[in-house]
Hints:
With 377 residues, this protein is of the alpha/beta class.
Amino acid sequence: MAVTPFKINILDSELDLLHRKLDLARLPTNLSNEEWSENNDVTLKLISDTIDFWRKSYNWRHEEALLNKLPQYKCPINVEGFGTLDVHFVHSESLAKSPIPLLFLHGWPGSFSEVRKILPSLNEAGFHVVAPSLAGYGFTSCPERAGFKLEQDAALMHKLMLKLGYHNYVVQGGDWGSHITRKMALRYPEAIKAAHVNLITMERPTFEKEPSYTDFETRSLKQHEHFDTQEFAYFQIQNSKPRTLGFALHDSPVGMLAWMADKLFTWSDSYPWSPTELITWTLLHYFPGPTTGFHKYRENTPENVVFCEDGSKLVEVPTGVSAFGRELEMVPRSWAEKIYNIVFWEEHERGGHFAAYEKPKELAEDLDKFFHSVWKV
């Protein structure tokens, strides 16, 4: 079936219900003088002030119109054993004479909209950019049966690129997108000419002699350990109780806002999130419903992503890495070279988990330099 243009158009009835819920928001009253905190800046005042802004000043239709400036499409893609999914994606073509097709993969709690800031630079640099919503995210439908793992995500994304006529292409991924990028590079090396990631998590490798680490790498390892030991509860609940948590956040825009704000504040590098940004990122999960996004955690545990056979295989496709100073999960280059054919490695002192959104210029420059250096068809 054909690729068809798509525009976001949330029903007026959904917006009316949303505002009624905001008017009836029930916040705790016993936290004003709290002597403890979660060190994430998601305070009673922050939530109260954001709700007030949401009710009085925020304009979804304006944000929707901005999102709809992105050239969006949908098309049906069949995944073996799971039927047909209706895949939503941005497809923005470059005016360059010999453009490189680039698949841009987001993760959680992001969305396809993470491509917005970086898209003009990538098009200008000579990339045809395809930025899909992952299965169960945003405006892509969700599999109706269990067992849809990263292997199926990889097949879905590969089939999308083939559907668009791209039999050779490159891939960039962050968060879940980095894991899907790895799966794709392992399974479709004949099509993927290069892979780039801005997150790497892996089992600690063994060395005959322990490498020496730079200050940057030492900080990265400490941050990785802190994330794994102090900030991993979200993964555990989204893995073990995606439906239960989903009921709460599906019904409560304020609950979804708090859950989103925690991740945006603690996972970024002091990025100045505006109330509008907090709300829009929240609504891109609240409107379609957050539960289906949580299911990716149910299907993909560390045991079947990192501590598995694929986790130790070498990706032979030329691989580039942009390591940002506040990324949650990044390892030293000496580690990464155990499982990737690293031919490009760039470190940035500033920047966090949402690289394309926090540091679009830096990431775009890395992608331009790396992909053009290895592109051969």
